[in-house]
Amino acid sequence: MSSLTTAGSSMEEQVFHTRLSLEIGGETSRRSPPPQKTTVRLFGELISPPQDQHHGDRDPRAPVMVGRKHKRVESGGVVTAVVNGGGGRNSKKVRMTLQQAEDDDGDRRSPSDGGSRKKLRLTSAQATMLEDSFRAHNILSHGQKQELARRVGLSARQVEVWFQNRRARTKLKQTEVDCELLRRWCDRLTDENARLRRDLAELRAAPPALSVVCPSCCGKKTTMPVVAGNNVA
DNA sequence: ACTGTCAAAGTGCTCC
DNA sequence: GGAGCACTTTGACAGT
């Protein structure tokens, strides 16, 4: 951030302005004023640590939540599901193949259709593959989506949703960075403004003008102000 | 047990 | 009509 200056336009500044204009004049302008999510703290402290590696630490065998079923991937592509809670009174264990589990995941389904919403938890391997793919291109063509879905072992819809959410996270993070940059920029301008006001006050408080000969005015006599302590010559 | 955070998924909108 | 986005809901999970 030290590269920010009040006079010039540093690289950082340019990037900032570019990104800000993208945010304001680009995508977001398609909608009415972007209501900030509570996680964006303008002029507040910066926020959440990077979320990118969140999935990376996840145990590949961690439960996969689908509706009210916890599914744990076992060896040989078999899934153990605990229906209706994590081993509670009404829970019952069900074994199914990974394919069955995926079929169970299905595509869009609304909570209104009886069953509760499903919650998939990606394995670290899946997350890594998606992350790698996102780094290559953050928007997928239909073919790329299908291919990636096949490789990762998810439905195309799930890959699509993951990319959508990932783009949203990237954008949110960038907004946070931009806000922080803007805050610092504002602080600097405030400081600069205070300094200029002090200078002005000093000039106004200076003693009456001193009569001197100004060389740039053909040697004519002129008046120049005397600034406290040092002459402006 | 409670709370906050994160991320998957649902919904509705706009744009092309 | 499909794709992407903003916004929202919801479940998992970690920290207290």
Inertia-based shape? rod-shaped
SSE string: HEEEEHHHHEEEE
Rounded radius of gyration (Å) = 31 Å
Average pLDDT figure: 59
Helix content: 40-55%
Share of β-strand residues: 5-15%
Our measurement of the CA-to-CA distance between the termini, rounded to an integer number of angstroms, reads: 36 Å
Structural class: alpha+beta
Task: Tag the structure with descriptive keywords.
four-stranded antiparallel beta sheet; DNA-binding; 5 helices; rod-shaped; 14% strand; alpha+beta; 233 residues; disordered C terminus; disordered N terminus
Describe this structure in words.
The chain has 233 residues and is an alpha+beta fold. The chain has helices at 11-25, 98-105, 124-136, 142-152, 156-204, and strands spanning 64-66, 69-73, 78-83, 92-97, 210-213, 221-224, 226-227, 230-231. The chain has a four-stranded antiparallel sheet, with helices on one face. The chain has a two-stranded antiparallel ribbon with strand order 5-6. Strands 7-8 form a two-stranded antiparallel sheet. Helix 1 (11-25) crosses helix 5 (156-204) and helix 4 packs across helix 5. The protein is rod-shaped, with a radius of gyration of 31 Å. It starts with 10 loop residues before the first helix and ends with a strand. The protein binds a DNA duplex (16 and 16 nucleotides) through helix 5.
Set out the fold topology.
Blueprint: H1 11-25, E1 64-66, E2 69-73, E3 78-83, E4 92-97, H2 98-105, H3 124-136, H4 142-152, H5 156-204, E5 210-213, E6 221-224, E7 226-227, E8 230-231
Antiparallel strand pairs: 1-2, 2-3, 3-4, 5-6, 7-8
Helix pairs in contact: 1-5, 4-5
This protein binds a DNA duplex (16 and 16 nucleotides) through residues 27-28, 30-31, 34-35, 37, 39, 48, 51, 54-55, 62-63, 65, 68, 70, 108-111, 116-122, 139, 157-158, 160-165, 167-169, 171.
Biased composition (Basic and acidic residues): 52-61
Family: Belongs to the HD-ZIP homeobox family. Class II subfamily.
DNA-binding region: 115-174
